[in-house]
Every structure is written in C-alpha cells, then in structure tokens.
Amino acid sequence: SVLPISDDLPDLRASHGDRDRVVDALRIAAGDGRLDAEELDTRLERALAARTLGDLAGLTADLAPAADDVLVIDQGGGKYVKEGRWRVPARIKLRARHGRVTLDFTRAVITASVLRVDAEMVHSKLFIVSSPGTVINADGLIRTYSKVKLHSRDAAADLLLHIELVGTLVHAKVIEQRPRR
Fold first, then answer.
1. What pairs with residue 87 in β-bridges?
2. How many CA atoms lie within 13 A of 59 on its CB side?
C-alpha cells in the first residue's frame, strides 16, 4: 500500500487525516499520469466517503511507488531546501560536502510509512523539520567528530512517518527541529 495504512487493521475507523493522505496520493498519481480524470474522480469520491482503513487501502493499492522511488540530493557547498508540498519518496540519497540541507516534512505528502535516508556527509549540516507523527532513528549512522540532535519521542499510535538515517557523517551535524508556529 502507498500509505501508512495498516493492512492488519482494515476494520479500524479512518480519520480525516487518513482520508486526506489518500486524497493527496490520488492527486499525485493523477498528476504522474497513473490515473485518468474519470478514475481520479471516482476514487476521490470513494476516499472521502470511506469509513475504514481497509476502504482507503484499496484505493491506493495499485499505485505503489516504483522501486526506483529515490530522491538524490548532491550538495557541494551552499544550501538545499525541500519544503512546502512535496512528495516524500521511499528513499533519499544524500551526499553533502560543505553544505546545508533542510528537509521540511510539515506540509509534505507522505506516501510511504518508512523513509530511508542514505547519507554521506562531510563538513555539512542536515536539518530535519519534523511534523507530529514522525519518528527518526539514527542508529545506522557512523559518526566521526559528528553530532546528532533528535527529539526523543516514542513511536505513538499516530505514527505517520519513520525516518531511518544510515550512512556516514564526518564533521557533520544532523539536527531535528520542530515546525515553526
């Protein structure tokens, strides 16, 4: 399934947020050419009327992102910022040398429940602006003279996105920030 809708709880009641995520995913799929206008309208109608997570999961099951769903960020110096309404891929390949990268998830469209960030950072900073329901795991990072500053939070029932950070940091920082109000 494209969305973090659990297949093992199909009878659980869907929330407004669950329906909104499916609507976003359907609109993106139509924009990518995977749904025509008529099919989009039909699925949007069904998404807005859905009562359970099982009803929603069926609307996006055939729209799973391709295995090559990877965002490549290669930043040599300067700043790279990903913010606003952007589609979060299944994987981000991040190479940063003497740069600053900001990934802002506050308005992002979450299409997979797990995001793996493969990082190779040298003399760089990564700022992650997390939204509620985001959990970040940095256990897969090899650090040399580097710092990781994350807000500790338990994987709550409202988990929308699990970010797994893996790779190497050399004289680098990863800092999680709260969204500005």
1. 109
2. 33
- Element housing 121 (H / E): strand 114-122
User: What value does the mean pLDDT take over residues 21-30?
Assistant: 83
Of 53, 27, 55, 21, the C-alpha closest to 40 is 27
How far is 135 from 30, CA to CA, in rounded Å? 29
What is the H or E stretch that residue 165 is in? Answer: strand 161-170
Contacts with 159 (C-beta within 8 Å, 6 or more apart), sequence order: 4, 113, 133, 135
CA distance 126 to 75: 11
Q: What is the DSSP letter of 46?
A: H
Give CA angle at 67 (92, 91), nearest 5°: 10
Query: In the structure encoding, which two tokens stand for residue 64, read together?
Result: 């799973």
Residue 122 has pLDDT above 90, yes or no: yes
Greater confidence (19 vs 165) lies with: 165
Residue with tokens 């909104």: 20
